[in-house]
Structures are given as C-alpha cells and as structure tokens.
UniProtKB/TrEMBL annotation:
Full protein name: site-specific DNA-methyltransferase (adenine-specific)
One Gene Ontology term from the biological process aspect of the record: methylation
Organismal lineage: Bacteria, Pseudomonadati, Pseudomonadota, Betaproteobacteria, Burkholderiales
Matching InterPro entries: D12N6_MeTrfase_N, DNA_Adenine_Mtase, DNA_methylase_A-5, DNA_methylase_N6_adenine_CS, SAM-dependent_MTases_sf, T1MK-like_N_sf
Pfam families: HsdM_N, N6_Mtase
Protein's organism: Aquabacterium commune
PANTHER family referenced in this protein's UniProt entry, alphabetically: SLR6095 PROTEIN, TYPE I RESTRICTION ENZYME ECOKI METHYLASE SUBUNIT
EC number(s) reported in the record: 2.1.1.72
Keywords, alphabetical: Methyltransferase, Restriction system, S-adenosyl-L-methionine, Transferase
Record family assignment: Belongs to the N(4)/N(6)-methyltransferase family.
Domain of life, source organism: Bacteria
Domain N6 adenine-specific DNA methyltransferase N-terminal: start-end pairs: 4-142
GO MF entry, a single one: site-specific DNA-methyltransferase (adenine-specific) activity
Chemical reaction(s) catalysed: a 2'-deoxyadenosine in DNA + S-adenosyl-L-methionine = an N(6)-methyl-2'-deoxyadenosine in DNA + S-adenosyl-L-homocysteine + H(+)
Length: 486
C-alpha cells in the first residue's frame, strides 16, 4: 500500500542538491515521518481523553502542528493548496522556526524517557537538508499520504522503514554499522528466550534492530494490558553515540509500536564501568557493537583492560552491565577468539572466568553486507565460569551476498541443536580445561572438518569490490551532476 509512496519520496530527495546518499534520504524522511506520527499520536491521546472525560493538553502549539504548517486541509478534508506554504517560505519556516521550537522541548521535558524529551533530542541532532522548498513541499505531500491509524498500517510502515535501513547498510562498506541481518537477530533472541518483566539492553543500538525484534518476540507472548504496559515503558533500553543512528533508532522503535523509546544519545564507552551499580544492570543484552574503531586514551581509562579496539571495550561494558544470571548474545569479529595481544587474551580470560560462554556461532563470509570481516556470535550467562563451549559452524550451502542474503531457514538447525548442545558435522564441544591457559585460544576448529565451506575465489572478491566502487562512484557522479545542472 505505502511502498510506492516511499519510492516517490526517495525520488524527490534524489533530485535535491542537499541530499547526496541513501543515508540522507533515510534521515530526511525520518524527521518528517516523526512529525506525521506525532499528529496521529496527538489524535489518539485526544480521543482517549474525550472517552475518559479528561481535558487533553496538546504537545505542540497549534502553528507547529502537522495539520497546520505541513498539510492544511479544507473543511471537506482535502489538501488546502492555498493555505499550504511552499518554496522559500516553507524552507525558511522549517529551518528558522520549526526546528528551533522543537529542539527546545529537550530543555522543558520532565525527564529523558518522555516523548517531549525525544522530540527535543531528535531536532537538536539533525537539520533539514532539503534545500529546495518546492522539493520539500513535494516530500511533505507524499508523507501526508501515510497513515498510522491502524496496526496494519503501522506494521507495513515498519517493514518499509526496515527496508530503508537495510538499503543504508548496503549503500557503503560499513553496512554492519546500520544493519544486522534480521534472521541472525531472531536466532539470537530464540536462544536467549527473553521473558516479559526482564530488562533488555543494547549499548550500541544503532537503528534499534535488536530492540525492535525483541519487542516483536515478546509482544506475541503478552497476555494482559499490564504486560503491554511493561513492554512499552520498562523493558527495552538502548544507547547510541551517532546522531543519525539515534534518530533512525527512535523512529524504528516508534514504527514498531513503542511510543517513547528508552534510547539515550550518548557515548556508552564514556562511562566508567566501575560506576555501574546493580540498579543499572540488565537481564538480557543483545548487541552488535562497532568494531575496528579506535577509542582515545581517556576513554580507555574507563576500563580495566586497556585497548583501543571499540568492540573489546564494549565487551567489558556488557559483562559488567549484566545481572548475575543475566544472558547475552554479542556479535564480534572472529579474531576475538584467537588474537594473541594482551588485551584479547585478558578479555577471553575475563569472559571464561566470570561468565558461562556456552555457545559460539561461527558466521560465514557475506553474513554482513558490505563488511569485509568474519564474525561470531558469543552467547553467555553471567555468574559461573565456563566449563564447556559448544561451537556451531553455520554453513548455508551457498555464497551469501547482496542478492542472496541470510534467511531464517539457514539458522533453524543451529537453534534446534543449540538447545541440547548436540554434536553434528557442524557442531562440537570444547572443554575449557583443555585450553592453553597462556592464550585461552578459542579458535573455531571443527574436529571433524565439517562440511566444506566454499570460499570465494579472488575473481569473485574483485568483482564485488568493483561493484561496490561502481555504486559509490555512481552516487558521487550523480551528486556532481545535480550540482552542475542546477
């Protein structure tokens, strides 16, 4: 129903000089979707108040409501083109009046978990990049076609928005930063089996894929209005450093049905882990922290094991942030299992001694589009040392790629065998007592050889590099062409 509308919005943004990539298209459509959503939320709250005999205080002053500045209507409910701003008037109103007004909400909000605070945070962090007020008018008209009234509409919008996030991930070589394959997330959740009443956390939440999938998993298990209230306000928690990812994560959770997401815009690693207390800990942690980054020396001082590798700092944060008996599933580079530097060895020792690392899922090349590293998923429970690690070597029997991604069926055997830690051609167990205590090397070494995993040939790798370069070059050339033909 709404798919063509999303395509039309992207086509309009593609023509605007201020929007040069898939990231810009998603960011700009996100803030407009957010404001359109607020109009629907306001209407719902007003209707609830009317039914209960209460007065309703609108969130926004009248002049800044969607139905006034963005999409005024005639008495018959049709678009009022005479009253609607366009061109420079519209662009200037958005840039000099609307955004400053909305950014002020952060200062006035009663707390960070309110919708008012989220409004202020979102509009403090991003700006309108659509340079043509006429393009902006066209995009607004398309966004106004979208409706948030029914669960069916919200469900379809959430799927389309997920597709946009996936395209963002595929748009560059840092794909994994924005998009973790949903089949992998669902398998991680199936293994951890979170329960209603438990607090679930992602300290590097990006576009909030883990939290959204966990919400979908638990919503199917809700049996009362109390359960639903618990899921709305006391279950899902996230932190995100980057402004764009933060905004997209907020919008993604809203589209999935969480009204005021508990996502905080902060550098998680800026927090000293010695300051984490019992009240700050979580029952379940699901995450794919950024790897390959380098943190400054002052950030490293927040951790007992000093390293510049972002993912290794996040691992320390996650272990510290788990409650006793808490469960975690963390995506990390496979080199974590075997690197011999002091930080890697110390971190493996910490994990094995303070947690039960019961499962390691070895993911094949191509699991993450645009990311040139192999990954594993670590499943562990805090509170008892590891005695035995069960390894599973995922082999879908084909080369994974952009047109042939991981799917739910690929992970069914893993989820089924993991429950009993079953041995097979692709799975085996290793006793920790047998490990070399000087390195704690946990390399994935299938004792039976397992099925042969077909490695890509150099020619195939070069073809993919060439295709990625062509995509990037095409985007740059298109942007230059738009500038010179203005």
């Amino acid at each position: 129903m709404f798919e063509q509308t999303f395509k039309n919005i992207d086509d309009i943004l593609h023509k605007d000089a201020g929007c040069t990539s898939e990231l810009d298209y998603t960011e700009q459509s996100s803030w407009l979707l957010f404001l359109k959503y607020l109009e629907a939320l306001e209407q719902d709250k007003a209707n609830e108040a009317l039914l209960e005999g209460r007065t309703h205080e609108p969130l926004l002053h009248e002049v800044f409501r969607w139905g006034n500045w963005a999409a005024p209507k005639t008495p018959e409910g049709k678009p009022d083109h005479h009253a609607a701003m366009t061109g420079d008037d519209l662009r200037d109103f958005v840039n000099t009046k609307l955004f400053p007004y909305l950014a002020e909400f952060k200062r006035r909000a009663s707390g960070p978990n309110t919708i008012e605070y989220k409004i202020g945070e979102v509009f403090s962090e991003i700006k309108n990049k659509v340079q043509s007020g006429y393009n902006l008018r066209d995009v607004i008209d398309r966004v106004d076609e979208l409706q948030f009234r029914s669960q069916t509409e919200k469900h379809e919008l959430s799927h389309l928005y997920e597709a946009k996030i996936k395209n963002m991930g595929n748009a560059g070589r840092n794909g994994g930063e924005y998009y973790t394959p949903r089949p992998l997330i669902r398998a991680m959740i199936e293994v951890l089996q979170p329960r209603i009443g438990e607090r679930i956390y992602d300290g590097a939440c990006g576009s909030a894929g883990f939290l959204c999938e966990a919400f979908d998993y638990l919503r199917q298990r809700a049996t009362s209005t109390d359960d639903l209230a618990t899921l709305q306000t006391r279950t899902f928690y996230g932190k995100e450093k980057k402004s764009l990812a933060y905004v997209i994560g907020i919008m993604n959770m809203i589209l999935h049905g969480i009204e005021a997401p508990n996502i905080v815009h902060t550098n998680t690693l800026g927090e000293n882990i010695n300051d984490i207390q019992d009240k700050d800990r979580f029952d379940v942690i699901l995450a794919n922290p950024p790897f390959g980054g380098k943190e400054r020396k002052e950030v490293q001082q927040n951790f007992p094991i000093k390293t510049g590798e972002t993912a290794f700092l996040f691992m320390q944060h996650f272990v510290k942030s788990l409650k006793a008996g808490g469960r975690a599933a963390i995506v990390i580079k496979n080199t974590f299992l075997s690197n011999t530097d002091n930080a890697s060895v110390s971190l493996r020792k910490l994990l094995l001694e303070s947690c039960n690392l019961h499962t390691v899922l070895d993911c094949p090349s191509g699991t993450f589009q645009g990311a040139g590293v192999k990954t594993v998923v670590l499943f562990f429970e805090k509170g008892a040392p590891t005695r035995q690690v069960w390894f599973y070597q995922l082999n879908p029997g084909r080369s994974l790629g952009k047109t042939n991604p991981l799917n739910d069926d690929d992970l069914k055997d893993f989820v089924a065998r993991q429950r009993g830690f079953e041995a097979s051609a692709q799975s085996w167990s290793v006793d920790v007592a047998a490990l070399d205590a000087s390195t704690w090397d946990l390399s994935v070494k299938n004792p039976d050889g397992g099925e042969v995993v077909r490695l890509r040939t150099p020619a195939e790798i070069l073809d993919e590099i060439e295709a990625l370069d062509a995509e990037s070059a095409a985007g740059v050339l298109a942007a230059i062409r738009r500038l010179v033909t203005k």
